[in-house]
């Protein structure tokens, strides 16, 4: 099953309302929203759990506080949590105000987030 287009539309709406320039990139079994050529947030469908998860790149400091919020957990694909990222389960972003909260954390961190190194096709 693919990620939820409904959730993608909700994220698009928030970014557009804030006049954020972004583009979308399919990756990691989901959809990433790129801001300033950096991963900002996204949707990941977890086959293992049978649900869509919000992927939020919020940084270490915001992550400490965020881990106390409903539905927030470490972003872990391989047994080792990814730095600066968290997953949020649907109960943590079901309401528009909650989703806007998470997207704003992502946008706050984006200016200081590092870009991924460009891969060459050699």
What is the overall shape? globular
Q: Give the beta-strand count.
A: 6
**How many helices?**
3
N- and C-termini, Cα separation: 33 Å
Output the strand order for the largest sheet: 1-2-3-4-6-5
Order of helices and strands: HEEEEHEEH
Helical amount: 25-40%
Strand content: 25-35%
How would you describe this protein?
- The chain has 122 residues and is of the alpha+beta class.
- The protein contains three helices and six strands; from the N terminus they run αββββαββα.
- It has helices at residues 5-17, 60-66, 96-109, and strands at residues 22-27, 30-35, 38-46, 51-57, 72-74, 85-88.
- Helix 1 (5-17) crosses helix 3 (96-109).
- The protein is globular, with a radius of gyration of 14 Å.
- 30% of the residues are buried.
SSE order and pairing:
Layout: H1 5-17, E1 22-27, E2 30-35, E3 38-46, E4 51-57, H2 60-66, E5 72-74, E6 85-88, H3 96-109
Antiparallel strand pairs: 1-2, 2-3, 3-4, 4-6, 5-6
Helix pairs in contact: 1-3
From the structure above, extract its key features.
alpha+beta, about 120 residues, about 30% helix, 6-stranded antiparallel beta sheet
Brief overview, please?
The protein has 122 residues and is α+β, with helices and mostly antiparallel strands. Helix content is 28%, strand content 29%.
């Amino acid at each position: 099953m693919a990620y939820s287009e409904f959730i993608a539309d909700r994220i698009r709406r928030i970014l557009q309302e804030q006049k954020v320039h972004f583009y979308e990139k399919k990756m990691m079994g989901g959809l990433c929203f790129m801001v300033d050529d950096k991963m900002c947030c996204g949707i990941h469908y977890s086959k293992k759990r049978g649900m869509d998860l919000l992927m939020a790149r919020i940084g270490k400091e915001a992550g400490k506080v965020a881990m106390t919020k409903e539905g927030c957990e470490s972003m872990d694909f391989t047994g080792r949590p990814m730095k600066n990222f968290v997953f949020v389960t649907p109960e943590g972003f079901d309401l528009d105000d909650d989703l806007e909260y998470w997207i704003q954390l992502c946008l706050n961190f984006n200016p200081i987030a590092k870009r991924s190194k460009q891969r060459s096709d050699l």
